[in-house]
Amino acid sequence: MIFRKILIIFLALTLGASPGFAQQKLSRKERKALRAESQGSRYFIEGEKQLVLDSMEKAYFYFQKALEFIPEEPAIHYKLAEVLVKANQAEKALPYANKAADLDDQNKYYSLMLAEIYTNLNQPLKAAEILDQLTADGESNQQYNLDLASIYLNAKAYEKALVVLDRAEEYYGVMEPITVQKQRIYLNANNLEKAIEEGKNLIEARPGNPDYVMNLVEILFNNNRLEEAMEVVQNEMSKYPNQPELQMAAYTLLKEKGEIDESNRYLFQAFASPDLDPDVKSKAYIGTLNEIKTQERDLVLDSLETLMLNTSPENAQIFTAIGQRKMLENKQPEAIEFYKKALLLAPKNDKMLEQVILGSFGENANLEELEKFTVLGVDEFPQRPEFWFYDGVVKSALKKDQDAVNSLNKALELNSANNSQLEQVAYSSLGNSYYNLGEKEKAFEYFDKALKLNPNDEQVLNNYSYFLSLEKQDLEKAKSMSDKVVRRFPDNGTFLDTHAWVLFQLKDYQGAKKYMDLALEHEAEPSAVMMEHYGDILYHLGKKSEAITYWKKAEGSPEASEYLEQKIKEGKYHE
Fold first, then answer.
1. What is the pLDDT of residues 247-260, one digit of tens each?
2. 457 C-beta neighbours (distance < 10 Å), count
3. Selection from 530, 529, 527 nearest residue 515 by Cα
4. Angle at alpha carbon of residue 445, lines to 443 and 447, rounded to 5°
5. 285-315 pLDDT tens trace
6. Is the separation of the CB atoms in 422 and 438 below 8 Å?
7. Are 201 and 174 in contact (CB under 8 A)?
8. What is the rounded CA–CA span in Å between residue 387 and residue 354?
9. What DSSP string describes 262-290?
10. Would you list the DSSP string of 202-227?
């Protein structure tokens, strides 16, 4: 605030009379005082400038300098208090604020500053005393009554708070914030009738607002006055028949009275309205879901589900609620689909995201679809290693190997060895992706890291041994690993195929045929890789015509090797 006297003096000195005139009219003492005020005004204006620039230290310095020249100017004390309050130094600000208010007790801003400081110093009643003086002086400061009431309420000075709230109501009229505070005071004092009276006054003063009706109904309901609550609701519904909030209130009251059929009638009416908040619908739906399972309950849920999807077709809360029901009914695929719809509308739900991702993995997983949600997890929760991990695993499975490497390494960085299971599977996936990227030694290094954490991981053992066999590297190690897997999983065609191919590279063709026979026996639809491998084994056993037959079964598949056509054409093995 720029005070008027300082500004007038400053302008007078800079734009006013000549020195000769001033010397004739003013004494030496008066000229000295005028110069002091002029100097003080300059410092004050510079302080104001620094305050606007949010440079508190400089502002404080200039206001202190101004005070040296004009120590009895209240505006300077006020500004010093303001700077200290902004610097969270309320205790140091207090003397300045007191001095400003003493020097000019008619300036409400000085009083308000003092009240704010007392509040910051946890002296609410002193703040209240100041505000009480302001609001008691006619209509000009009545807007501070709500602040004053809040102070009295926090200090549990309920009688004083009521007086102030009544004063505020005279100024503003009947308003929800005032009514609610008065009701709390009356209820705290066990004066239920006055609280009810306040609720009725608010409904009468602000007709047509269902929130005010619900406020009164809640008070009546909580005090076991169901009949009165129902009477209030029915009276309002007769005036406003299409308010779904009132229908929900009728549903709750009638259900409490045991009138189930009638209560459900109101429930269905409310749910049929697109105006009913979806949050209210979803909570009521979940409330019904949590009741004891009966045929009647399920029929009600079916009807509510249809009504919700018709009136709120694109709402995350509705999709989530229906998903919860499907999950409780062990219909996980359906539940996951509803959760996906919810997440696309409201993605900031880490637990649901994780549930969707984990629930979507499997043999026939739609990896492209799943990747949408792993990316969502990374975008919404970039500091969670789990989502980077899920994203990396999915990208690895999709052969997006460089992206997989990036996500998996980020997961390991954020994980910081906290979750060993995440770490082990991340190493395994990194091994696969690095191999596909041609970084084979790095791939084998990560497979070794994975096996160090879990020596019995069948996927790592299988993939590691297969890649070693393709490279014709450490074949005895590959044999040992694949042998370990087929002993544990003797019916798994993929594992049997790997072991057969390791034996093939070791030139144990009879052993390779034995395990490939088992692989084909346990695979309903053998892959082209298996067919080609079997042809290669048969060729080395001298069964050339049979070998060509199996090579031809693999013909045309993208999984086949680059040498397959040459094998078929020339009737001999190539690698």
1. 999 999 999 999 99
2. 19
3. 530
4. 70
5. 999 999 999 999 999 999 999 999 999 989 9
6. no
7. yes
8. 8
9. HHHHHHHHHHT-TTS-HHHHHHHHHHHHT
10. HHHHSTT-HHHHHHHHHHHHHTT-HH
